[in-house]
Amino acid sequence: MAAVVTVRLERAGDIAAIDDVIVRSFGREGEARLVAQLRRDGDATISLVATAGDAVIGHVLLSPMSAPFQALGLAPLSVIPEHQKQGVGTALMNAAVAQAREGGWSAIFVLGDPVYYGRFGFRADLATGFSSPYAGPHFMVLPLTDVLPVASGKVSYAAAFS
Ligand SMILES: CC(C)(COP(=O)(O)OP(=O)(O)OC[C@H]1O[C@@H](n2cnc3c(N)ncnc32)[C@H](O)[C@@H]1OP(=O)(O)O)[C@@H](O)C(=O)NCCC(=O)NCCS
Fold it and tell me: For the chain, what is the radius of gyration of the CA atoms?
């Protein structure tokens, strides 16, 4: 039986465990370094962990973007290999979207797999009006209001991404 999974805000004591989750899920260090830099820059706006018992098994981070409206960029999302395909990523995504909505943000951008993120309402067609180095079929947006405040413009991720 799958363990009971809880999603909560990151705490100071979680940092090392989150690093470990990110490195293990991506199989490399780059995304963990990105998260460390986002924290140093004060850009870890929404950082959530998924836990099973005392163990951190997943993590998601959203950082502010420069955009024509209040937008967050979602990256990275990670679940340790042993707990993948059990709905942990889905639980993190649903909690992240709820937090962003509560925080009054207008939209979330993501660069990723259209099939995976499409499940949560992210749309590549709505992102085509926004110019970004990441523009293309994997660049998607999830409006958190009925319609996006504007349909086009320039968007860029937080400084740590460059
Ligand atoms: C992507 C990731 C976070 C998904 O986490 P997860 O806990 O396995 O996700 P879920 O269990 O909620 O998956 C839901 C569904 O998405 C599917 N899925 C998982 N990863 C997928 C991917 N990369 N592309 C398409 N579908 C994917 C699963 O098969 C599952 O489908 P099902 O419900 O029909 O069985 C996890 O696989 C991971 O950490 N991968 C490595 C890091 C990464 O690539 N992160 C995303 C880019 S930022």
Answer: 15
